[in-house]
Amino acid sequence: MVLEDDVLKKISPTPERRKAIQGSVNSLLARTKEEADKEGLGLRVSLVGSVAKDTFLREPDIDIFILFPETVSRDRLEAVGLAIGKRILRVHEERYAEHPYVHGEWDGLEVDLVPCYQISDTALLRSAVDRTPFHTKYVQSHLREEQKGEVRLLKQFAKGIGVYGAEAKVQGFSGYLLELLVMKYGNFREVLEASAAWTRGTALSLEGEGTKKFDEPFIFYDPVDNKRNVASALSPNCLALFIFASQAYLKGPSELFFFPRQRKPLELDVIRSMLDERGSGLLLVRMERPALIDDNLYPQVRRSLDGICALLSSHDFRVIDGAYHVAEDLSFVLELEELVLSRGRRHSGPPAWIENASSFLERWGKKGLSRPFLEGGHWMVVAPRDHPSADDLIKVKLYTAALGSDIRKHMAAEVLMGAEVLTEENRPLLSALLDKRMSWEV
Amino acid sequence: MVLEDDVLKKISPTPERRKAIQGSVNSLLARTKEEADKEGLGLRVSLVGSVAKDTFLREPDIDIFILFPETVSRDRLEAVGLAIGKRILRVHEERYAEHPYVHGEWDGLEVDLVPCYQISDTALLRSAVDRTPFHTKYVQSHLREEQKGEVRLLKQFAKGIGVYGAEAKVQGFSGYLLELLVMKYGNFREVLEASAAWTRGTALSLEGEGTKKFDEPFIFYDPVDNKRNVASALSPNCLALFIFASQAYLKGPSELFFFPRQRKPLELDVIRSMLDERGSGLLLVRMERPALIDDNLYPQVRRSLDGICALLSSHDFRVIDGAYHVAEDLSFVLELEELVLSRGRRHSGPPAWIENASSFLERWGKKGLSRPFLEGGHWMVVAPRDHPSADDLIKVKLYTAALGSDIRKHMAAEVLMGAEVLTEENRPLLSALLDKRMSWEV
Lengths: 442, 442
Hints:
The structure is a homodimer. Chain A is α+β, with helices and mostly antiparallel strands. Helices cover 40% and strands 21% of the residues of chain A. Chain A folds into 4 domains: 2-133, Beta Polymerase, domain 2; 145-257, Orthogonal Bundle (Poly(a)-polymerase, middle domain), CATH 1.10.1410.30; 268-340 and 388-441, Poly(A) polymerase predicted RNA binding domain (Alpha-Beta Plaits); 344-384, no CATH class. The first copy, chain A, has 15 helices and 15 strands. In chain A, helix 7 crosses helix 8 (188-194). The interface between A and B is large, with 53 and 53 residues.
């Protein structure tokens, strides 16, 4: 197909680029080996990841693993691993997956230098990263030459529709998962076609299913360790989006699936007329952004959005939709059916023949907006809401919401409501809420 | 107790009045016997009810039963029974309980002339009214002389708090049930005290409980027929009100329990300020009153009120309270948290991996106030409400509500909302909704 050929041309490294990368990788491997040897621990050095597998896109990350013998303690491995990385990469930062590694630059390429244990079998693994060299070897030995382009297409497709990457920010498909899918179904198009039959709970495998059952949206048994689900990070929403986008692409292929246009935030006029048509109102909660890496931050942000929605719902506000935006601070925006509720609400009490009915009468006889009255044998009252206004509720009760633990620490929040929310500054946040166009739609 | 002595003096017939009633009853019995004898069917005539039991209040109904041998057919009994009644009572009307009887006037007293079968045992009864002579005999032989005043007090108490009468309009305590309660507990005060321990499902008896189980709020096994619950017509609410009023009376006795002040309907200003404080709104539905006797009308009216509430709730309106008023027409009034909802509402669709997701997309892609979007793997959309305004909903959809069957026939309704409802004419209806003072409260 011409379209896919065109895309492939755009995303595959040119021979020159490939050569340049190989040169940089070789010099980096040599340098790493040299530094590793200095430790006298019998360390090995190995290129893993998409460059090793030749499935990388134009600007790959270089993943180099420093393999430690199992006799080295975990503390030592971390200390030595970091020390080596820092000696090699001039500009660098420590990062933490399951354990620390060094991220930096080499010849203008992004590099991860990761210490791990050299094990003979995945059954013996001591940390999650120990599996990576096995993944690399598996793909190197099972992915056919002509499938490498198919992987590249699939990666770019996933990237274009916003589901590429297993990190918490995306909760999408890892590169390895996409490689397995191509091996499973043969090529890019076959993967897309196959996805029409996927459902929540679909379980796939290459080397036979494992005995372990996963209660995750989508399961791909790891061919190098069938007790593991390669798709464990995939959210139901990314799964759904992939399935939907695939069918949409097959019906009407377009480069926009691979290279979506950059969206401009919606104009305030557009936002205003959308809200007018719906008769709904907006509530904005802005909080301090805690100093966390994305993998820790995004789960907390999502939990906080859910917590704010739950707080509003439990106080009778009807939430239509919600969105968050991570910038220098954290913003949450909620679309509500009404921003201000009636002060009076129906409140049911105990049946009149119950002992403690008198405490209900005493309480509501004073506080009620009506006298307590009997209905179907039960006491009822028109009770006053403490917080009929959504912004007031959030200002006073946010601390009771189920927020992310680090977000909770910075409780001072700015709360805006209604027309106050419609500012230039908030357009990106409001677009995250209101612009429901798919990435490939014009 | 002086208070109760005073009340008893007011409600008991004076010796003169008692004598006058006895005279009227004797002449009516003689006249009825005379007319009955003309039929040559061996009919007997019997005084039953509160006059026969000497538990009547100042203005009693006279209940005279014409007892037919069991050999007479049901049709014949009805025809002959009505004919006799019409010959005796100048001003009269036919009425229907389980079967027809004649209601009219004699010497200025209200009279019911009721044909029934003369049976030897309640096990052989052919219609519900056949039991009445047995009830009369039971009370005559078991209620002690000094308890008659206690019954009168209890009847007046029940009347004062609005729970006297088993008819559908009231759903309260029948005279017979109150007599049984006095026999059970001894006197007026003991009944009130005992009620503190009553609960939903309390079962009482004088001659031992029957084997039949009743799923009714309150059970008193009929001493003349223990397969019957004397309290079968009692609603949970009348039960609750009796229990509550009893305890309130015992704590602070007052003539107001027996003789409540007539309430004036609330002033419109008062109504307006109550609603302002609550921030709620009113919806009025006025319908034609079908030509039914009260026993058939009231159940339908209550069912209709429930049906209107259910219709509103199922369209997201939050109903705080509702009331009806029966006059020349039927009026229903609902207090709602909001009279107009947002046009947009959240609408959940199928998961994206379900076959029929496409029909959701097709439908809402056109009709939606947003594009369909994915959330947690499910399709969602901001859908437009067809009837965001409560009055519009009722105008268009009232025919779908679970109304009383005869009320449903006259569907043309007047529907008013908000300030439109606050008229002089509607004050009684609005007071039925908003004036929650107990009858004995000032």
